[in-house]
Amino acid sequence: MSTYDAPLADQLFLMNEVLGLGEIAGFPGYEDATPDLVSAILEEAGKFGLEVLAPLNQPGDEQGCAFENGVVRTPDGFADAYAQFVETGWNSLGAPTEYDGQGMPSLVSTAVSEIWFGANMAFGLCPLLNQGGIEALTAYGSDELKATFLPKMVSGEWPSTMNLTESEAGSDLSQIGTKSVRDGEHYKITGQKIFISYGEHDMAANIVHLVLARSPDGPEGIKGLSLFLVPKVLVNDDGSLGERNDLRCVSIEHKLGIKASPTAVMSFGDDGGAIGYLIGEENHGIKNMFTMMNNTRLSVGLQGVGVAERAYQRALAYAKERVQGRDVDQSSAAIIHHPDVRRMLMAMKSQTEATRAVAYYMAACLDKARHHPNEQVRQENQAMADLLTPVVKAWSTDTGAAVADLGIQVHGGMGYIEETGAAQHLRDVRVTMIYEGTNGIQAADLVGRKVARENAESIKALISLMKNDLEGFGSDNRHLSNANDALTTATDWIIATSPTAPQRVAAGAVHYTRILGLTLGGWLMTKAASRALELTQNGTGDPGFLEAKVLSARFFADQFVSQVPALLELVQSGANTLEDLRDGHF
Amino acid sequence: MSTYDAPLADQLFLMNEVLGLGEIAGFPGYEDATPDLVSAILEEAGKFGLEVLAPLNQPGDEQGCAFENGVVRTPDGFADAYAQFVETGWNSLGAPTEYDGQGMPSLVSTAVSEIWFGANMAFGLCPLLNQGGIEALTAYGSDELKATFLPKMVSGEWPSTMNLTESEAGSDLSQIGTKSVRDGEHYKITGQKIFISYGEHDMAANIVHLVLARSPDGPEGIKGLSLFLVPKVLVNDDGSLGERNDLRCVSIEHKLGIKASPTAVMSFGDDGGAIGYLIGEENHGIKNMFTMMNNTRLSVGLQGVGVAERAYQRALAYAKERVQGRDVDQSSAAIIHHPDVRRMLMAMKSQTEATRAVAYYMAACLDKARHHPNEQVRQENQAMADLLTPVVKAWSTDTGAAVADLGIQVHGGMGYIEETGAAQHLRDVRVTMIYEGTNGIQAADLVGRKVARENAESIKALISLMKNDLEGFGSDNRHLSNANDALTTATDWIIATSPTAPQRVAAGAVHYTRILGLTLGGWLMTKAASRALELTQNGTGDPGFLEAKVLSARFFADQFVSQVPALLELVQSGANTLEDLRDGHF
User: Fold this and answer.
1) Do A551 and B408 touch (CB under 8 A)?
2) CA-based nearest residue to A388, from A308, A470, A302
3) pLDDT for A214-229, tens place per residue?
4) Which residues of B touch A577 (CB under 8 A)?
5) Which of A486, B205, B266, B383 stands the most exposed, by the fewest C-beta atoms within 10 Å?
6) Do B548 and A434 touch (CB under 8 A)?
């Protein structure tokens, strides 16, 4: 039976010793985030994950969701677990205090989210989406809308969803056909949305749909879209629940994974129009929606990290207990002693740590962007978070899938049998490479909008920052230094090539994203190792744990960062052939 | 609905223009393999695949196998399709003529097998295993055993299985506990086997189990194993079917993929012992079994190729029909026009072609090993086939899974929905990295037994052969030339390091396998491109097809072969950290 222990020591080391949680807790607004409280929060989250969520992970996958007459039943235990989740206040951890949230730094809520995803990714998807809804409503909603909906969304009693995709509008939202018509103080919404995670379920009394729809008389394309709040159940003036709104779930999908998470086809306005309330201004739908998507993308990246961690734990446990073959001394050996199994486990461990470090680093940037006392620092960190968003989303999920795949391989034949649980991790995490914008779309965003923005200030600042650190790390940083040089070359090439040949840049975007992810990961792993050495010299901390940090960083540099210079060729060469290709050549 | 067209043009080009089928057809014993006949065979196989097997692929996955009271029901249509398969003689294509086989070259039966795997991998697994059984019995069986069983196995009426794995004996067959006791002219077999593909089913009147079991009084470990033929139904002296033998299917597995293929737990001898007949000599079980496994491993590699081809066809069809976003001229565009989708499709296409080329090259070596008139050439080619076996098995299946994974990504959100069919390809092909010896075991075999064998003659001959060809290819072979140099360095390192530090070599074995696969693939792709250029200059052949060969080779060199030099670091550096690791560091 697969289970999951939150990697508290790794998380706290990263937050406290590498990413400066202490400094962040000094910002006005984050004073509550003392080391003791943060540590207690993580410990409690770990307990909730282990005791409540993790045991439902595999049974939830086996049972899946059921759909009948418009009603969706989540697997046994999910509704009860969600009620406990709401009751114990987990949902409000990072939410603003003015709406009953606990206002914890993003760095803290990020660590807690990773635990939910590791314990039960399908479950964690519900609060993930709700988090995005809370952010959008907080930023753009009217006071009245906020007063009515935000406290219930923050508590989790009325979780929210994101209704973007339609059958002809996936990566290309300009094709959205869902309509809105003004009707007094609200709007009537009509149309069909697909791939709506938790679009319908039995875990809450109400569901708050955030719906991207065409404005009543806006321009064509993405500039004519508005964001609406469309509740499943209408809310009376006194805040009590009233009539059902004119929307329904038509069906749910049969998916490769996250089977405990209902993916709904939603129909709005079959009986004349669902009542919707405008969030922000008309025709600002895309902008408002992207506010929420940036943070959602960080969360999806964290799903990659969380599932990778769980897959690693599962594989490690199996490798310790499974005996096959002989050790060097001819005693029978657990497979963890076989060099190739050891290699796979270290690849899983070090990649998980590297993606965690980059995701948490982005969370720390978000905290500085929100609450750093200096305005310029705030701006710089927001720009840095924007730059990192597609990297965290794409690289962490590509890597999470690779780690889960290795997890299957460590199990040998047992990995292919569903009862083992290893295969579920790959099936589950595979969606993270696709949803909230495919990883190809993330890469296009990175090279097309983020790198060259504002004279490439953010990427150049990041490269300098990493370069300066290099010297402090000592002499054994050949791979990281080469990676940084390759990143610089690739970045310069993208900046130079984009204006005249954006298609050439687009053909290498995915590889550039990987270069940036690996270099960032290598940098932060080395920072962690460097700090571990310091602490060891000071005689502070668990020597075995600190040694492991150094070994993990070295393995990651040798086996992953070392590949970065060669990836430069991939960034630049893809277009050579693609330009000569006609459709008939396929 | 996903379907599959056999890639006849690609297959025939490779066989005729690159791998010298004409020469092979000149060997005594292969005279029937004229270009016209081979082309007709492939065309008929393509038709059978398209019309009979491919339509059962997705329904078979959805329905899966059912187990009740010891009886296994394969999905609707499978038994009928198998009856047709037997009736039309497909099973006997590569089998020896003295037992009613058609004696076609391995190069031809290899191409045909790829078609079965592309059309329906779960179905194709049954003849795949039977092929191995036929080879083992042909090589080592007594005349009497051959007379009784071979014709029925060759026709496919009594397909055979391989019973190796036990719950405590997976990669380590020395732990096999299944026992044999002499009982007159036969043996009594007792024990339990797991992961037995097609161990029980409703597609045939009898099943011929080849069972690896402990010899009555042999030594411990793998030297005390013998190979037995244990039929499901005993055969009377007149060749008719008699009583049920003392063996039964206990349960079938719930797997990630190939759900239409029953994976059985088999129990032998619950009522006193299943009657088994010795194949070859006592205690030679491992050697005899490996004879069959080498060819089975080529076939598993072909499963990687076949599924990759199908995944590519499915993704290509979707990319042509799915409209999202705008083209450069602002018209709405099928996603095949997006650079990153084009990159993914070319990665799928070129990798599929490269793995096909390497697998077929190995098949041509097998043909030369069997029927080349010169004894020395026969020996050299057998050694080359032995060397290539783990590469074809591991690299083709790693690559097949990577291609199927890209296939999901091309589909975006639809790729995650099972109805699309893209996800099934990944679920199915994932097992090929595991069964018939995990890819880690293949890599260990390559560096531990094959590379250094006989003073590394085969690998050195192969490297020279590739190096000599380089000059003939013209000037644009920077990547291939660098790859060959890296392969040479890696090989020298392995030969030098193995005697003193085999654990260091083992830690890099998987990466070395990849280096060899990529270099071989790049070489054969370049050979194909070179031949395509010649034919274009001669004005022979379809210019578009020939152009595509050149582009595909260039893309493969730029995007895959270019990475080989960097992999050298992975081969050599893995052990650095692993040697310092203690279990507590995980």
Assistant:
1) no
2) A302
3) 999 999 999 999 999 9
4) 346, 551, 554-555, 558
5) B205
6) no
